[in-house]
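user: At home tonight, take the chain set out below, taking as long as you need, and be ready to discuss the fold:
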Amino acid sequence: MRGRAEVERQKQKLDATFTRASKLVQLDDPELLSDAARYLCVLVAGLLEQAVIELALEPVRNHSEASVQRYAENRLRLFTSAKAQRITELVGTFDADWRSDLESYLVDERKDAVDSVIALRHLISHGRSVGLTMAAIKNYYSRVKPVIDHIADLCAP
């Protein structure tokens, strides 16, 4: 990924995947729908994590020398498990006001969506059974996208 434009491109790509997956409803196959929901959950979690990394790199790219950029990129690429608290901590290392802003923003449904997608992704990736529906993952995704946009507004205005 490369900046805000790349994050937008990845969101559009995932939106298209959701559109294609919605056509599976016509097949009336609950297991297939469940499989698709789990797959989409992994993609949403991946988008969230990669977007946070990419957006956090923007201020570094805009205000640092190449050696500092390389160091920051290597460190940020290690960021995983993008739960709300970890995102707030990461963004807060760049600017205390960003941290406060994000703490106020990541509450209720937004925090729940972020934390749920990451928790579900971990369960899925470890072969655990999850009761995830297409409707639930669409709902989570609709709440995760504005979180990504808010982080973009902070880090890459």
